[in-house]
Design goal:
Layout: H1 2-25, H2 30-36, H3 40-45, H4 47-72, H5 76-100, H6 105-126
Helix pairs in contact: 1-4, 1-5, 1-6, 4-5, 5-6
C-alpha cells in the first residue's frame, strides 16, 4: 500500500505542476482559457491572481516530491510528513473549491482525487 500511495502522490504532484503551468505560464492562451471557461478579458483581468495561485500549486508539488524522495531514501517519518502536508493541502484546496464553487465540481474532483487516494493509501501503508 505504501508503494501505491507514493505513486499516487507522485501523480498528484505532477498534476499540480501541470496546473502551475496553466495558471502561471499559459493563463491567457486559448487552450487554458477553454479549460477554465474564461473569456480573453476575464483571463487578462485575473492574470496576476492566477500567476500567484499557480505557484501555490507548484510549491505543494515540490513539498510532495521532496517527501517522496525522503521516504524512498529511508527517511520514512520525514517523507511521510512532507507527503501528507503536500497532498493533504491539495485535498483541502479541492474541498474549498468544491464548497465555495459547486459549479466547479468537476475541477475540484480532478484536483482532489489523486490526493485523496494518496492520503488513504499512505495512511493504510504506514499502519
Amino acid at each position: 500500500m505504501l508503494t501505491a500511495g507514493v505513486i499516487v502522490a507522485g501523480l498528484a504532484a505532477l498534476l499540480h505542476v501541470y496546473i502551475f503551468v496553466m495558471e502561471s505560464l499559459t493563463w491567457t492562451s486559448a487552450r487554458t482559457r477553454a479549460t477554465f471557461g474564461l473569456t480573453a478579458d476575464e483571463a487578462a483581468a485575473t492574470k496576476e491572481l492566477a500567476f500567484n495561485q499557480g505557484f501555490y500549486n507548484l510549491f505543494l508539488a515540490i513539498v510532495s516530491g521532496i517527501g517522496i524522495g525522503a521516504l524512498l531514501t529511508g527517511h520514512t517519518a520525514v517523507g511521510a510528513a512532507l507527503i501528507f502536508a503536500g497532498v493533504g493541502s491539495m485535498l483541502a484546496a479541492a474541498l474549498v473549491l468544491l464548497l465555495s464553487s459547486p459549479e466547479k465540481a468537476r475541477a475540484a474532483v480532478t484536483q482532489g482525487v489523486f490526493p485523496l487516494i494518496a492520503v488513504v493509501l499512505l495512511a493504510v501503508g504506514l499502519v
